[in-house]
Design brief:
179 residues, mainly beta, 4-stranded antiparallel sheet, 0% helix, disordered C terminus
């Protein structure tokens, strides 16, 4: 995908075939700022924010699914009063949910229609997210080293570690470790 402005001041998100470099379609970007795009199985999942009158006044976050071949919007959901951050796709084929992160909430959403099946407040600023490889469960790393887990089998964020820092013997690098 690639976001460009043309001379008519229309902003478009272009989708291209990586093997042939042929442009397949585009998505017309309206008055939102794109925060993240993830693609899977011919669909682009777009996290964007519609800003208010000035840069500090964000108003609404959007989660949009677009067919890459046609550029048609499959579905779009609005989250009033939030700023979009990222989309995390399932970590395995056949996954049914994605994780939509805003500045203040985390939502577990159905891939087929974008409906939020679970929406929870974010406890601390989330720095990164990932999906477990074989289930509809997602990990989030917080700003103070917290690790949170959310998935279809839980109705709340599960804090699995208050702080986790692993340093090399030279104390130069922080690394992730699975225990």
């Amino acid at each position: 995908w690639n976001l460009t402005d043309n001379k008519e001041t229309k902003r478009r998100l272009y989708f291209a075939d990586l093997k042939t470099a042929e442009i397949l379609s585009y998505y017309e970007v309206t008055d939102t700022i794109i925060d993240d795009v993830k693609c899977m199985d011919g669909v682009a999942y777009i996290a964007s924010t519609k800003w208010g009158k000035d840069a500090s006044d964000y108003s609404d976050a959007y989660l949009t699914a677009v067919d890459i071949q046609t550029g048609n919007v499959l579905w779009e959901n609005e989250y009033k009063g939030f700023q979009a951050k990222s989309v995390t796709l399932p970590g395995y084929e056949g996954g049914t949910d994605l994780l939509f992160l805003t500045k203040d909430t985390v939502a577990l959403c159905d891939l087929e229609n974008g409906a939020a099946t679970l929406t929870l407040p974010v406890i601390s600023e989330v720095l990164d997210t990932s999906a477990y490889p074989d289930e509809n469960t997602f990990r989030m790393w917080g700003e103070n080293g917290e690790i949170f887990v959310v998935g279809t089998d839980s109705d709340s964020l599960i804090n699995i570690s208050h702080r986790m820092e692993c340093m090399t013997s030279s104390n130069e690098d922080i690394i992730e470790a699975d225990y």
